[in-house]
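Holo prediction — flavin-adenine dinucleotide.
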Amino acid sequence: MNRSEDYIPRLATITDIHIETRTERTFTLRLPDDDPGMDFDPGQFIELSVLGSGEAPFGLASSPAQTHLLQITVRRYPAGIVTVPLHRMHVGDYVGMRGPMGNGFPLAENLGRDILIIAGGLGLPTLRATIFYILDRRDDYGQLTLLYGARTPQDRVYKDDLQAWTEAPEIKCQQTVDVADESWVGNAGYVSELVDRLQLQPDNTTVFMCGPAVMIVPVVTILEQLEVSYEQMYINMEAHMKCGVGKCGHCLIRDKYVCLDGPVFRYDEVQQMQDFQHAL
Ligand SMILES: Cc1cc2nc3c(=O)[nH]c(=O)nc-3n(C[C@H](O)[C@H](O)[C@H](O)COP(=O)(O)OP(=O)(O)OC[C@H]3O[C@@H](n4cnc5c(N)ncnc54)[C@H](O)[C@@H]3O)c2cc1C
Ligand code: FES
């Protein structure tokens, strides 16, 4: 059954705009005090509307503990109907939001286990929410590892968080870039190479991933070699969406609605979705 918040956008005020990269910005959105706030699970998304332009889905990137202050990180597409006008907006402007939508990562089901998070490029937003969630309940989980890959050092999002996580004892954070420059002293190469070097306990590890297919496919191959089963891997997928509530069929891949059944799927389910490569 759908809820009214699935259909009726709530107004939120932009309270901060952080420039992440040349094409990506993080928007902090505040719901009014008399709004009940947005309770969400890491992995869920909102349909964000720019009044007079249109609506598009974006993953929630902030801590789920903050129900009135939400963050999304948005890549601007050339001529994008929503992303171009959104990138032109200012602090104090209003946007609409419906949600939260879809499912989230199965965090309650994985208490006590080691959590391995693997993100590529703009795959990090909903995994950032996942990291905040686990850090808030650190004793409930085993080892927490983040592997993050970006094209260049400048293309990395959340540079301050990455720095803080690299220094924090509660999380093991490793970054890599495809193409290094003189400013970069870290790893160079693909994120799959970081996976290859991991010492993990396959029986006690659950993997949460989000990134382009060119990253996911080799990463899964290496995880399989490390004896992690498909049932222990979850991926946050994207698909072209319109309604976000299972009505329009835009996001249907085989027999799954990405907006309702996902966007988080177990990897054995993903394998059965024939259009996987196309949909990512
Ligand atoms: C569940 C979910 C979560 C998402 N989370 C984020 C997020 O956190 N941050 C973010 O920046 N984007 C995210 N996206 C993608 C985002 O919704 C699209 O980039 C956005 O809809 C583009 O809007 P637009 O109106 O500006 O572009 P349009 O005017 O619709 O299209 C502009 C160009 O972008 C291309 N395009 C549109 N959507 C996609 C897409 N999904 N993948 C690749 N190319 C696309 C079009 O083909 C076209 O070339 C998410 C998508 C889904 C389904
Ligand atoms: S976006 Fe309409 S059915 Fe999923």
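READOUT: Residues 22 and 157 are 10 Å apart (CA to CA).
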